[in-house]
Amino acid sequence: MGKRNREKRAAKKKARANRGPTAPRLDFDDHEELRTLPPTVSPEMVAEALKEAAFARAFDTDFVDKCMADLAGRRPVASPRTVAIGAGILLAAVIDAVWRKGWMPVDVREHIRRTADAVASNLLIDAIAADTAKHSSSTVDERWAAQVRGLDAKVWWESGVPQLLQWVDRHGTDLERALRTTILLVDELMKLPELPLIVPRPGSAAARSSSAVSGVDQKVLARVRALLAKAESTQFPDEAESLSAKAQELMNRHAFERAVLDGEEQRKQTAASTRLWLDAPYVDAKSHLVSAIAETNRCRAVFYPRFGFVALVGESMDLEITELLATSLLVQATRAMVAEGSHSTRTGASRTRSFRQSFLVAYARRIGERLEEAGARAHDPVEDELLLPVLAARSQVVEETFEKMFSNLTQRAVTVSNGAGWEAGRAAADRADITVGRQAVDA
């Protein structure tokens, strides 16, 4: 065996170890055995060849090109139908493996949106639609189904013809480009690590028996969304912060009323989890804002810097409050940050990045303080006798769930190296009188 082949095998072994278990393996075990496919090629052989090409994509482009020539070249070893069926088999197996690792539809879409191109994202959406269609709706958790609907993942293709061939026609491309997109998508998905399972995957017994609970009353939710929409659209920072504070107070009052009802009916407290993806840049600093909002609303947060999302654990209504406010306040914080303009030293060197990093961290700290004040105003002292025991029981369940899901955490500190940015961030979050009696915040 030549030196080059030994290097390729070593790289392949390392890549496989990094990925961990993926789709079930077929009969082939080495690239060398796939160099010359047998005269009669089955879809399963095509699936295995494509998977090996995905493994080889980072370190053996010659093998990938050879695979493309065999499957979609001038003299392919199999018909386009067989090749397309094989690609479908591989995508289905890899998608199933990703679900078993704890990822959800929105998670994989967000990851592929950041690491690949729009074409790969489009193929992923179709793979999600195909996977969902395999299962009875009664075996798909409503939270999962809601994500699929949100992605607009629908089966648009006709039965009887392999989906990939119809995908090629729909996008005006050719089979080779479709296969290269498949390899790219499979490569990215196979590298994903395991995450805590937060929603039962489709088809599981747990999915059949679970029931999603939407904690927030729709009328209250509509009022809160209206307040936040006004906050995001106004050009006046003090008004935006007042509107956000009003939304926080309204949501907390509703949450406390529901908690009192739980106490009266002696309902068992439960905790759930969700993930909130952040857009670059400054994802580390933005995660501090999400964490501050989560803490204010009785939730726990864990930041995944490698991928750019925050995992949240809390009672279902508290999670809804946190997601809603975080989404809006991230928009407001970014707008306030950009409004500060560019910054540089006396010598002309740019300090914009350090300024904005410090700005967002300070903004997060002060917004957390202000939202806590707004939440405290939602308390009714008359109800505290019933409310406090419920909140204590809920906090215990959240902590136990959090510890079970995240047992090996490390603390991360964000660097604040720009005093001007810190002061500007606190000022942006502190300019307003956030008393809810103001005319500007009436809903």
Automatic annotation (TrEMBL):
The keyword Membrane applies. It comes from the Bacteria. Keywords: Membrane, Transmembrane, Transmembrane helix. InterPro entries: DUF2786 (IPR024498), DUF7168 (IPR055592). Residues 219-257 form the DUF2786 domain. The chain crosses the membrane at residues 82-99. Residues 1-29 are annotated as: Disordered. Signal peptide: none annotated. Residues 1-17 have a biased composition (Basic residues). Coiled coil: none annotated. The keyword Disulfide bond does not apply. Residues 286-376 form the DUF7168 domain. This is DUF2786 domain-containing protein. It comes from Lentzea roselyniae.
